[in-house]
Amino acid sequence: MTELEFRAELKNLHGGYLFFGDEDYLKFSYAKEVKKNTLDGSFDEFNHVVLYGEDFSPSALYSAIATVPLMSEKKVVELRSLEFKALKKDDIRMLEEVLSSLAEYDHTVFILRADAHLFDAGRLPSRPSEMYKMLTKYLTPVEFSFPTSARLRSWIGRHFTEGKIRFDLTLCDYLVEICGHSMWNLSNEIEKLCAYAKFNSLSSLTKEDIDKVCCKTIEYDDFQLTNALLSGSRDFVFETLRRQKLNHEPANIILASIVKMYTEIYSVSRLQALGTPKDKIASMLKIHEFKVGKYLAKIAKTSPARIERSLELCREADLKSKSYSNVSSYIAVERLVSTLCAL
Fold first, then answer.
1. 3-state percent breakdown (helix, strand, coil) of the chain, nearest 5
2. Is residue 157 located within the same domain as residue 230?
């Protein structure tokens, strides 16, 4: 189920839902909408139960789901920040038992809010992960993807309108450039800008105000890593890798992200060669339109032969890494990146 499909069901919620996908801010926002549309305003503090991953136990979840609501027809139970990879086999088995009983308690609307960095849904729809397959036996999946560029602009503009501040929509792209694509970050910076405008009795904001008030965010993500690799910006690539190593990100995960990027780049290049427009490419490959635009810009500066060679090098490195230790795998990743930068 998409976000828009779920929005249409907000007045008639029942059972359990798996909130997953890249944009955690939207999961937070829609969880608030679930609470608002399900509870009747009486004893809401007792009928909205939130469990967190660090305190999770199947018995606690079962108790929260099974307990009848206080002086109300419905209750909402949320499970947040669960570390799925840390669950043991017995925990998973017991979690499944609890979820299988959910249909018996129609007074409860249950939300499993899966943080983007803690949950792997697999490659949908063709190759879902085992955890995704188990959860969706009992929960309706709702995917919250990064918004398109057009929708992000509209969302930013709406927030300033609500604050009664004029904000030229041409500044939206600049605000994203400065603050990044995370809706969490953007919402915080928008709040700061609105407070700044009100304190200084400003009815509108400018680029200079953004520079003065907002914190610049450097996004060490697939967008910039791809840009660095394709442009041969070796310093930036290795700085990104250094940060990932300092954060103890496994080498095989880093390598998988590089392979995924070049696979996407290859697919985008083939579709572009067939005359497929950008929005259609994004829809067909289920890639954010902003990322497709970045790929297309860089594809224009290289050749199909180099793209194919890059993908071949990625596959070779991936095959070799299967027999490496984690330390050796870091070396393999660095060698791959060096070769890719030299192409």
1. 60, 10, 30
2. no
Q: What are phi and psi of 81, to 5 degrees?
A: 55, 40
Using pLDDT thresholds of 50, 70 and 90, give the confidence band for residue 34.
Answer: very high
Q: Of 125, 143, 161, which residue sits at a domain end?
A: 143
Per residue in 174-208, pLDDT (tens digit) is 898 888 777 888 988 999 999 999 999 999 999 99
Dump pLDDT digits (tens) for 111-134: 999 988 789 898 888 889 999 999
The CATH number of residue 126's host domain is 3.40.50.300
What CA dihedral angle connects 177, 179, 182 and 185, to 10 degrees? -160
Neighbours of 244 (CB within 10 A): 19
- What's the number of domains the chain is made of? 3
Domain that holds residue 176: 149-213
- DSSP three-state, residue 303: coil
Over the stretch 252-264, which tens digit does the pLDDT of each residue have?
A: 777 887 888 889 9
Distance CA 37, CA 12 (A): 8
The SS3 call for residue 51 is strand
